[in-house]
C-alpha cells in the first residue's frame, strides 16, 4: 500500500485544516502520516500548535522526518532556475515509489465532511484546563450576544503579504463591520482576538 505524508505548515488555523484533511485521508489509507518538520523551519508562526491546544501528536518516526526534510528541500529548490527539472524528477520518482506527499491547505470542509464527527472531537478544548480569566471570558461569551472580532497583524503586515492582499482589513473595514453588527444584533458584546493586541 502506498504511504502518504501530510505536511503541516502555517499557523494554527492552517494546521487544523491540514489535520482534518489527514483524518479524511486516514479513512482511505491506513498508511497516511502527518509530519511537523516544516513547522520547525517556519519563522512567521508559532510552530506546531495542535499538541499544546488539542493534545494531537505528529508522527515523528525517523524515516518520516528525513523524508519530510528531503521533500521540503526539493519543493524549495523546485522554484529555482537551473535545478527545477532535477527536483521535479526526484519528486516524480518518489511518487513512482508509492510515496505521496500532500502539501496544501485544504481550507474547505468538502475535504473532510465525511469525518466531521471525528474532526469536531479532535478539536475539542479541555475546559477543566483553562485559566480563571479564560473561564470568565467563556461565561461572558455564553451569557451575552457575543461577537468575535479577529484582528490579524503579524505576517499579514510583511511587504510580501501587503502586495498579495493589499489593505483588506483596514480600520475603516472594522468600523463598518462593527456598525453593521450593531444594526443587526441587540446589545452586542464584542470580544477582540489578535496577535497584536496594542
Quote the distance from N terminus to C terminus. 52 Å
H/E element sequence:
EHEHHHHEHHEHHE
Q: What class, by secondary structure content?
A: alpha/beta
Largest sheet, if any? 3 strands, parallel
Unreliable stretches (pLDDT < 50, length at least 5) are: none
The average pLDDT value, as a whole number, equals 86
Q: Give the beta-strand count.
A: 5
> Radius of gyration over alpha carbons?
20 Å
Side by side, the strands of the main sheet go 2-1-3
Shape summary? globular
- Helical segment count: 9
Q: What's the helical proportion of residues?
A: 40-55%
Query: How much strand?
Result: 5-15%
What does this molecule look like?
- By secondary structure, the protein is of the alpha/beta class.
- It contains 9 helices and 5 strands.
- The protein has a 3-stranded parallel β-sheet with strand order 2-1-3, with helices on both faces.
- Helix 1 (12-28) links the parallel strand 1 (3-7) and strand 2.
- It is globular and about 60 Å long.
Amino acid at each position: 500500500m502506498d504511504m502518504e505524508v501530510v505536511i503541516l505548515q502555517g499557523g494554527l488555523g492552517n494546521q487544523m485544516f491540514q489535520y482534518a484533511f489527514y483524518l479524511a485521508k486516514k479513512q482511505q489509507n491506513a498508511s497516511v502520516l502527518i509530519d511537523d518538520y516544516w513547522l520547525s523551519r517556519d519563522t512567521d508562526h508559532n510552530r506546531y500548535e495542535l499538541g499544546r491546544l488539542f493534545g494531537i501528536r505528529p508522527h515523528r518516526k525517523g524515516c518520516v522526518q528525513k523524508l519530510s526534510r528531503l521533500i521540503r528541500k526539493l519543493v524549495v529548490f523546485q522554484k529555482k532556475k537551473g535545478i527545477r527539472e532535477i527536483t521535479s524528477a526526484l519528486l516524480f520518482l518518489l511518487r513512482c515509489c508509492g510515496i505521496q506527499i500532500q502539501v496544501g491547505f485544504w481550507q474547505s470542509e468538502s475535504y473532510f465532511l465525511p469525518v466531521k464527527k471525528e474532526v469536531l472531537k479532535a478539536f475539542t478544548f479541555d475546559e477543566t484546563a483553562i485559566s480563571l480569566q479564560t473561564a470568565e471570558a467563556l461565561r461572558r461569551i455564553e451569557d451575552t450576544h457575543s461577537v468575535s472580532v479577529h484582528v490579524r497583524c503579524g505576517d499579514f503586515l510583511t511587504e510580501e503579504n501587503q502586495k498579495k492582499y493589499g489593505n483588506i482589513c483596514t480600520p475603516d473595514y472594522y468600523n463598518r463591520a462593527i456598525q453593521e453588527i450593531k444594526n443587526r444584533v441587540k446589545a452586542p458584546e464584542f470580544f477582540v482576538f489578535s496577535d497584536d493586541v496594542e
